[in-house]
Amino acid sequence: MKSLIILGSTGSIGTQALDVCRRDGYKVTALAAGSNIKLLEEQAREFKPSLVAVFNEEKAKELKIKLADTDIKVLCGVDGVCEAAQFDGDIVLNSIVGIAGLRPTLKAIEAKKTIALANKETLVTGGEIVNKLAREKGVKILPVDSEHSAIFQSLQGAPNGSLRKILLTASGGPFFGKRKKDLENVTVKEALNHPNWSMGAKITIDSATLMNKGLEVIEAVHLFGISADNIEVLVHRQSIVHSGVELSDGAVIAQLGTPDMKLPIQYALTYPERSNYAFEKLDLFKISTLTFQKPDYETFRCLPLCIKAINEGGLAPTAVNGANEEAVRLFLEGKIKFLEIAELVEKALQNVNNKKEFNLDDILETDKQARELVRTYI
Question: Distance between CA 168 and CA 150 in Å, rounded?
Fold first, then answer.
């Protein structure tokens, strides 16, 4: 039985990963989270990891007191999370939100852990250095995002070099069919009302702007070694076809399932085997109809901006990601309007000091500059 380290254990992906662990009996050796120590304490007492890590140092002090009656070691800050990522365990499942997940991924790769990756920003901002390090260490990176897992599954058995096109599906979010004038005064509550998926606030807003799909295009470029020109985004409102591929002979292969993250999580943990699945099964008679439409690039400009960023390469994807993270935070706090998210992402892309050759420090500096730029415009 494989042993797991789960980073971001109190978030949507992390809690569902622990559901899979409950069912399949995986040993959890370490957990890490941001600041939700109430839930983290409950997880620690149930799964009995050797250590837990908390990004927020004050919250870590509180958790240490709460777990004083156990043998569980409590670490804090970025360094503590990175130490957790290198702890004893076969697989590191990284579901941390945002660029904060990059350093722990690199540390886990250095420790030669298999990576189950649900933190897309790891590849969006550091794809080149992450892939290079993974090759050097002989580390597998297994995608957990439902779309990238679907692509990965669809490619099983396909000959090397046979991938012609990726078909990346998108739900369209809560504002599908709306035009810019309809979105001028949308509320946070409206933007968080996703039609199909239950996710954290940040990724739900990204789904509403289609930024999430743009980040997934960038991630797919790094995961599957294909140019953005060969990735086609399809709005698929039912969220049943999770994505697919077109191969060199014209065959199209896709993975279908209910909108449930437990299946891609489980597949990353069991790969290359498949486990018995005890969650909701797909009923095509009940679904009846599957539809596909082109995205509206004029209204949802974050998607084409991400495509432009990955085509430019270098630090451009880091700039759009950092600007978006900061803009989404400001939108959730009621300080900017919904449509301003894309405007600020574009400003960052236009003003980034791009480099084609870069290291981790360059990535973190560009991320910082993009966030500062966003704050100057409010």
Answer: 9
